[in-house]
Amino acid sequence: MTSPSDIQLVWFKRDLRTRDHAVLARAAEHGPLLPLFIVEPEAWAQPDASARQWAFVAESLLELRADLAALGQPLVVRVGDVVSVFEELCSVLPIGRLWSHEETGNNWSFQRDLRVKAWCRSKGLEWREMQPAGVIRRLQQRDGWARQWNQFMARPQDQAPEGLERLPIEVGAIPTAEEL
């Protein structure tokens, strides 16, 4: 059980926006939050990643950081292995819950998420993954998929929080493609 002072850790993956971001909206309802993007060098070494893609992500991170700063808490960026970054953050801040969108990626990101799930379980930390789009994971069968998709797509857009509490943490640099 989390307390009102526990920090809600919002892990941005591919969902680099504040508007219509259910994870950000729900996490903000539960207490102060730390918006986080983790640059994973191993992910950028995968055959389906490129410097051009990173340039787009880096530009998006700058915009997201500015949008979140306007709300009160800029985006925090860390470079490294996800579990190691989470471990370090939990050692310096009272993290109460991890939030993210479910990711539909490649096998590398799937395996990474399994490691995160195991780490959360070992720490007794709740991880709330939310569906970001019409892709529905873990379906046992496809019957009724279109109905579920239509219901999801008909939902109203989530609004960005009105304001965020500034937390005492260094925001971190956004690396260049060359640095990766």
Explain how this protein is built.
With 180 residues, the chain is an alpha/beta fold. The protein is 39% helix and 16% strand. The protein has helices at 22-28, 41-44, 51-71, 82-92, 107-123, 145-154; strands spanning 7-12, 33-39, 76-79, 95-101, 126-130. The protein has a 5-stranded parallel sheet with strand order 3-2-1-4-5, sandwiched between helices. The radius of gyration is 16 Å and the shape is globular. The termini are far apart. The mean pLDDT is 88.
Mean pLDDT: 88
Q: What is the number of E strands?
A: 5
Number of helices: 6
Tell me about the biggest sheet?
Answer: 5 strands, parallel
Write the H/E string, N to C: EHEHHEHEHEH
Structural class: alpha/beta
Roughly what percent helix? Answer: 25-40%
Strand order of the largest sheet: 3-2-1-4-5
Which features does this protein show?
5 strands, 180 residues, globular, 6 helices
Short description:
With 180 residues, the protein is an alpha/beta fold. The protein is built from six helices and five strands. The radius of gyration is 16 Å and the shape is globular.
